[in-house]
Amino acid sequence: SFQEIFGSKYPAPRRLLEERYKVFLESVERHKYLNGFRQSAGDAFYGINPFSDLSAEEFSHIHLKSYPAMKDDYIVPNKTTSRENA
Amino acid sequence: LPLRFDWRDKNLVTSVKNQMDCGACWAFSIVDTVESAYAIKGQPLMELSVQQVIDCSYMDNGCNGGSTLSALKWLYQSQSKLVRSSVYPFKSRTGSCHYFPATEFGVSIKGYKAYELSGLEDEMMRVLIHNGPLAVIVDALSWQDYLGGIIQHHCSSGHSNHAVLVVGYDTSGDIPYWIVKNSWGTSWGIKGYVHIKMGVNICGIADFVAYPEM
After folding, report:
1. How far, in Å, CA of B75 to CA of B109, rounded?
2. Which of A29, B3, B175, B179 has the most neighbouring CB atoms within 10 Å?
3. Predicted pLDDT at B79
4. Which residues of B touch A65 (CB under 8 A)?
5. Which of B213, B26, B37, B35 is nearest to B113 (CA)?
6. CA-CA distance, B9 to B31, in Å (whole number)?
């Protein structure tokens, strides 16, 4: 069902499919863990989505590729002035 | 400041895009800011070329990563004109920079700003309203499994790794939150968006804030 819904395609060897399924099951366990911290209806909830067949390492390697410039390149407004204005 | 503000209500935000397996979130968020800033100036809202930024922003690494600020620097210093996405479509891989004749339509920027606003999210609200949607870099490791709701826990600051676009906020309910546009398609999150609790720099949302000046 996951493959049908999210259009994931895997190479033919069954071994690779089984490896992906194992990663998928680990994701489901992670969802249970994260949802255990929910305290109210508005809290974030977690579950099966397009990235559920990726390990956390794979997800990070593929999708988290941005980085900030040097800290000095960012202006830090005067906090005292800002609070006085507020 | 209004209790709720969302640039989408004014039809000044383009649709959610999908970066697929290309790690160019930095380019997507910067093109998003330019698209909105151009429309806020009274011009038509249109999709501009992310692929042009991926291929041509020489201080970055295309689909292997980059920085929102260096992309803005490249846009400003080179006075490059971002062409329409239909003219220079997304290919999900880094390619050679394609140049266009001066007669080709494109959007350039007149400047840019970059702020560190942690502890100053009230100021960030003001900047959002006065200048348009903001490109920010967050720690999105915990976003892998996100389906909906307001992220309040398990999202620390200090490991910024993903660029997105802040388009609005909502402080009318019990938990105030930022409205954030992602570039992972509409089947992720809330039709491609994520809500993040305001006021405590969740995910480092206020650490690296940037926007173009038109």
Report:
1. 7
2. B179
3. 96
4. 23-26, 61, 63-66, 161-162
5. B213
6. 20
Contact by Cβ (8 Å): B168, B5 = yes
Residue closest to B38 by CA, chosen among B6, B83, B100: B83
Inter-CA distances, B176 with B134, B152, B173, B196, Å: 18, 10, 6, 8
Q: Do A63 and B19 touch (CB under 8 A)?
A: yes
Sign of CA dihedral A50, A53, A56, A60: negative
Confidence check: pLDDT of A80 > 60: no
Per-residue pLDDT at B100 exceeds 90: yes
Q: Do A64 and B140 touch (CB under 8 A)?
A: yes
The residues of B annotated as belonging to the active site are: 25, 162, 182
With contacts defined as CB-CB under 8 Å, which chain A residues touch B204?
A: none
ipTM of the complex: 0.91
Nearest by CB: A49 against B122, B123, B188: B188
User: For chain A, what percent of residues have pLDDT higher than 90?
Assistant: 55
Q: Residue B180's closest CA among B189, B197, B168, B188?
A: B168
